[in-house]
Write a structure and sequence with these properties.
Layout lengths: L2 E11 L17 E4 L4 E4 L2 E10 L4 E6 L6 H15 L7 H10 L10 H21 L3 H4 L7 E8 L5 H13 L4 E5 L4 H15 L4 E5 L6 H13 L2 E5 L7 H10 L3 E4 L6 H9 L5 E2 L3 H18 L3 E2 L8 H13 L6 E3 L1 H8 L8 E2 L2 E3 L12 H6 L7
Parallel strand pairs: 6-7, 6-13, 7-8, 8-9, 9-10, 10-11, 11-12
Antiparallel strand pairs: 1-4, 2-3, 4-5, 6-15, 14-15
Keywords: Magnesium, Metal-binding
InterPro entries: Enolase-like_C_sf (IPR036849), Enolase-like_N (IPR029017), Enolase_C-like (IPR029065), Mandel_Rmase/mucon_lact_enz_CS (IPR018110), Mandelate_racemase_C (IPR013342), Mandelate_racemase_N_dom (IPR013341), RHMD-like (IPR046945)
Cofactor: Mg(2+)
């Protein structure tokens, strides 16, 4: 049995609402910059799906997280990885991952789109192996430590405090008792938001904050002190991601757990933060790491008594399903992220929906990732650069 075909589907979908709030329509360009986050975003929902077919007709689906220009990941897979994969056994995934990583390693491509593309292939290979064997991915990873995966509602993408509070209360009434706010608007404004959410949800709710890399060490220390008084569970991305020493200094002085890792792709990149004790909670994203590397990162974190809260932003069906399987198989899991608008959109491309209810993801049933892609719908939204 061997791999016979590798296909990519870079997608650009118009959602009802742009990621983290704002209008998705308009006559302007798809890409725009959010000055508060110094980052480029798309008004569309963009990603790159990967389909790998074996000689016996089994199919595995993966996804490379690609919130902008997903055709880049697709082209890398088409030009660089497909020749390495075709003719090989899908059960040689460890060898194939190493070959893909080594293919551009000595040229310095040890992060970014190259690794995202590997992640998409890796997820597809896990799905394919599970389909061939008739086993779910979490069983292939060694079994599930939990039958369902706890999650927190992420973002609360509303324009003002009052509407964020109303949305948080709506989720609490649906059984979701953990929320994360996307803030980073200044210490005073962030504390004002968190205080309002705490008063709305009560003392039992778990509240987290994503500061989007917007603070200095001194500012973040001040923020953490005030957040601790409000019972905040973790402060995510307080400083620039390159500032490992700053995170270490902050963690040593903060009574609130420090979370980071969405920008990193490999165990080698996480190693610096782990060894310098710069974080309490690590947040690898399966659409950037793949399942194999995420499990390596979680194992490394476990040796340092750290917990893992996988990051999950704009990834669609394969990313979400892969995250759930990996989270179920991680002994040191903290919690998994839940993005309701993205989740709804992801289910529109699946024949049977993924389920997240009352603060928990249900573990997908069936072989592989336990999902079935609606390929007709996927082809309706694929970009012209499909390979």
């Amino acid at each position: 049995m061997h791999i016979t075909n590798v296909e990519c589907f870079p997608l650009k979908i118009t959602p009802d609402q742009a990621y983290l709030g704002g209008k998705a329509d308009g006559n302007g360009p798809d890409y725009y910059y959010r000055p508060e986050y110094r980052c480029v975003y798309s008004r569309k929902m963009e990603t790159c799906l990967v389909k790998i077919t074996s000689s016996d007709g089994h199919v595995g689906w993966g996804e490379a997280l690609a919130p902008v220009v997903p055709q880049v990941a697709a082209e890398l897979i088409k030009q660089l990885f497909a020749p390495l994969l075709i003719g090989e056994s899908p059960f040689s995934s460890g060898v194939l991952n190493a070959r893909m990583y080594d293919s551009m390693r000595d040229r310095g491509h040890i992060s970014g789109y190259h690794i995202d593309a590997i992640a998409g292939v890796d997820i597809a290979l896990w799905d394919l192996k599970g389909k061939i064997l008739g086993l779910p991915v979490h069983q292939l990873l060694g079994g599930a430590f939990r039958k369902s995966v706890p999650c927190y509602v992420s973002g609360l993408p509303e324009p003002d405090i009052d509407s964020r509070c109303r949305l948080a209360k709506q989720w609490q009434e649906k059984g979701f008792h953990a929320v994360k706010l996307a803030l980073g608007y200044g210490v005073r404004e962030d504390v004002k938001n968190i205080r309002a959410i705490r008063e709305t949800l009560g003392d039992e709710a778990q509240i987290f904050i994503d500061a989007h890399w917007n603070y200095s060490v001194a500012e973040a220390r001040d923020l953490a002190a005030q957040l601790h008084a409000l019972g905040v569970g973790f402060l995510e991305a307080p400083l620039l991601p390159e500032d490992i020493a700053g995170h270490r200094e902050l963690r040593a002085k903060s009574a609130v757990a420090i979370a980071l890792g969405e920008t990193e792709r490999t165990r080698y990149q996480f190693k610096a933060a782990i060894e310098q004790r710069a974080a309490d909670i690590l947040q690898p994203d399966v659409g950037r790491t793949g399942i194999s590397e995420l499990m390596h990162i979680a194992s490394l974190a476990e040796t340092w008594n750290l917990r893992v809260a996988p990051h999950l932003s704009v990834g669609l069906g394969p990313c979400i399903a892969a995250s759930i399987h990996a989270a179920a198989a991680i002994p040191n899991l903290f919690m998994l992220e839940y993005q309701p608008p993205v989740f709804t959109l992801a289910n529109q491309l699946l024949k049977q929906p993924l389920i997240c209810e009352r603060g928990e993801y249900q573990l997908p049933q069936g072989a592989g990732l336990g999902i079935e892609i609606d390929e007709d719908r996927v082809r309706d939204v694929v970009m012209e650069a499909a390979c």
